[in-house]
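ok new one. same drill as before - structure tokens go in, u give me an amino acid for every spot. 165 of them this time. try not to just spam alanines like last time pls lmao
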């Protein structure tokens, strides 16, 4: 086989990204099936592109987070509904309720710090590096900072396929 794997006619990177995003959907679906209650100490940090197709959030939140936003599902969330391609959830931001609809394709990171599990995704819309943004501000019941990315690779899956241009 003389052909370089990056010249593959099979879009392996897209297939793997889609499969890993399905993990997020399944986890959220299990929480929904359990009455919207997270088991044990589990809680999730979900980062997504606010300008991705299908993302629905209040205009003031889109203005405040014009590129990327991280939400926390822990103590104060409601109405979790998981579909095939997206999920909806209610959260409070600065004491104002908001319903967000987030397609799985818009997600760039999913972390459950309770078990040191995390997934990072390539941005579906562009190959740009994520920009720095403020810490999540939805009204969580904890003051703990988000877990730092795990560098040793334990329980963290990061998929980054190089592409020839």
């Amino acid at each position: 086989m003389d052909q370089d794997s990056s010249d593959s006619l099979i879009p392996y990177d897209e297939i793997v990204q889609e499969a890993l995003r399905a993990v997020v959907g399944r986890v959220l679906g299990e929480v929904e099936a359990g009455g919207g209650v997270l088991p044990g100490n589990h809680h999730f940090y979900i980062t997504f592109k606010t300008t991705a197709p299908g993302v629905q959030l209040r205009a003031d939140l889109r203005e405040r987070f014009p590129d990327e936003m991280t939400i926390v599902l822990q103590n104060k969330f409601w109405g979790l509904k998981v579909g095939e391609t997206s999920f909806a959830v209610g959260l409070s931001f600065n004491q104002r309720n908001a319903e967000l609809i987030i397609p799985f394709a818009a997600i760039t990171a999913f972390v459950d710090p309770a078990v040191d599990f995390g997934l990072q995704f390539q941005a579906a819309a562009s190959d740009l590096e994520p920009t720095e943004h403020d810490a999540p501000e939805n009204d969580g019941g904890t003051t703990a900072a988000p877990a730092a990315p795990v560098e040793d690779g334990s329980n963290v899956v990061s998929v980054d396929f190089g592409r020839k241009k």
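The helical segments are 12-33, 59-64. and btw The chain has one domain: 10-140.
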